[in-house]
Amino acid sequence: MTRPVFTVLNGPNLNLLGTREPDLYGAAGLTEAQTRCEQVAGELGVGVEFFQSNHEGSLIDEIQQRAQSPGLIVNAGALTHTSIGIRDALAATGVPFVEVHVSNVYAREDFRQRSYLSDLASGVIVGCGIQGYELALRRLAALAAT
Ligand SMILES: O=C1C[C@@](O)(C(=O)O)C[C@@H](O)[C@@H]1O
């Protein structure tokens, strides 16, 4: 069997992790999240790649291009709460995905407590900091192995 390669998709402003509101999002950046996921991927014998964009259409393009992916980890940032387009792209591909939020969105403003993605997700991880990406990768790898 070929080694499954999972993709971590990050939406708007997540390129600023590490410097952006560190009290909410922590001091670690996306590069550190990627390094840690690569370590976990090595341990699990899977591959992982990262993509970040501040643009909704670019994220939709990436989702469509990964229609055959064994799984996606999706932190759509603010688009989680607004984007029917991202929801539709995920629904159209039917690719299993885990939704991740670095902060605990349920302890924040009301508008962050609505996700257009959660009911389609295989799982949702919130409030675990950048460790959420590693946890999601472990989950997708386990699902792909069954
Ligand atoms: O940009 C983000 C980051 C976020 O997705 C998180 O990872 O906690 C939560 C969103 O509400 C916010 O707009």
TrEMBL record:
<comment type="similarity">
    <text>Belongs to the type-II 3-dehydroquinase family.</text>
</comment>
<feature type="binding site">
    <location>
        <position position="88"/>
    </location>
    <ligand>
        <name>substrate</name>
    </ligand>
</feature>
<dbReference type="GO" id="GO:0019631">
    <property type="term" value="P:quinate catabolic process"/>
</dbReference>
<keyword id="KW-0057">Aromatic amino acid biosynthesis</keyword>
<feature type="site" description="Transition state stabilizer">
    <location>
        <position position="20"/>
    </location>
</feature>
<comment type="pathway">
    <text>Metabolic intermediate biosynthesis; chorismate biosynthesis; chorismate from D-erythrose 4-phosphate and phosphoenolpyruvate: step 3/7.</text>
</comment>
<dbReference type="Pfam" id="PF01220">
    <property type="entry name" value="DHquinase_II"/>
</dbReference>
<dbReference type="GO" id="GO:0009423">
    <property type="term" value="P:chorismate biosynthetic process"/>
</dbReference>
<feature type="binding site">
    <location>
        <begin position="102"/>
        <end position="103"/>
    </location>
    <ligand>
        <name>substrate</name>
    </ligand>
</feature>
<dbReference type="GO" id="GO:0009073">
    <property type="term" value="P:aromatic amino acid family biosynthetic process"/>
</dbReference>
<comment type="function">
    <text>Catalyzes a trans-dehydration via an enolate intermediate.</text>
</comment>
<feature type="active site" description="Proton donor">
    <location>
        <position position="101"/>
    </location>
</feature>
<dbReference type="InterPro" id="IPR036441">
    <property type="entry name" value="DHquinase_II_sf"/>
</dbReference>
<feature type="binding site">
    <location>
        <position position="81"/>
    </location>
    <ligand>
        <name>substrate</name>
    </ligand>
</feature>
<comment type="subunit">
    <text>Homododecamer.</text>
</comment>
<dbReference type="InterPro" id="IPR018509">
    <property type="entry name" value="DHquinase_II_CS"/>
</dbReference>
<dbReference type="GO" id="GO:0008652">
    <property type="term" value="P:amino acid biosynthetic process"/>
</dbReference>
<feature type="binding site">
    <location>
        <position position="112"/>
    </location>
    <ligand>
        <name>substrate</name>
    </ligand>
</feature>
<dbReference type="InterPro" id="IPR001874">
    <property type="entry name" value="DHquinase_II"/>
</dbReference>
<feature type="active site" description="Proton acceptor">
    <location>
        <position position="25"/>
    </location>
</feature>
<feature type="binding site">
    <location>
        <position position="75"/>
    </location>
    <ligand>
        <name>substrate</name>
    </ligand>
</feature>
<protein>
    <recommendedName>
        <fullName>3-dehydroquinate dehydratase</fullName>
        <ecNumber>4.2.1.10</ecNumber>
    </recommendedName>
</protein>
<dbReference type="GO" id="GO:0003855">
    <property type="term" value="F:3-dehydroquinate dehydratase activity"/>
</dbReference>
<keyword id="KW-0456">Lyase</keyword>
<keyword id="KW-0028">Amino-acid biosynthesis</keyword>
